[in-house]
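Table S2 (text version). Query chain:
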Amino acid sequence: MTSTSPLNIEYWALQYSAQQDDNSEYTNAIRDRSDALERARALWDWKDLSRGVDVDDVTDVLTTDELIDLLEDSPGDAVGQLADLLVERGALTNRTVVTPAFLLHLADSGPGQYSVRFPIFDVRCWVAYVYLTRRRGGERPLPRSATQSPSRFGEFSEFFQQTIPEHIDGRRYEQALFRFGAYISALPSDTISDIQAHLNELENAISSVYESSGFALTSDSAQGFEY
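Corresponding structure-token output:
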């Protein structure tokens, strides 16, 4: 059965590539390194984890085999166990989700094989998930940080797997969620209902122009026209 995403993946993924051209760094690291910890060293700054966690503190206290063993568990359980392990060994000061989820993503991915069980995760992806699944009611604001609950990451993983269409690459879907989450987080609107109203206006602006003129964003027929 083909999954249906609650998001225009291509539109938001193109918005991502317009803002950030960093896909080659990720794909090259996954292609050129088979060891998850080597991938982590290569991509730590790319993922922007170095602001809070030193990569050596993490990679020096783990083995790749430990990561691979955790992949047998459910995503939520695996992330929770790895978070506890990193706190116990002094690599993290508190139980978090983003860092262990990223490590498990690197262990579960391969060249041309993005792990949809452990998708790359951060606050923008979490915001997109919370809005799209209506985890919060209309008068509540969006979350301001990523969840710290491994079980919530497990729910995000399940959502990711259930809603990604068969023909869409996992990295592409993650980029779309990232950019959508970043967009709605940057709106001056404070509540879910305000954001929904803004998105409805955006939908109407695009669809009404398309219905009346045959184009949605810009018309090529206007090129070279003297106004």
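Notes on Table S2: The chain is about 55% helix and 0% strand. The radius of gyration is 20 Å.
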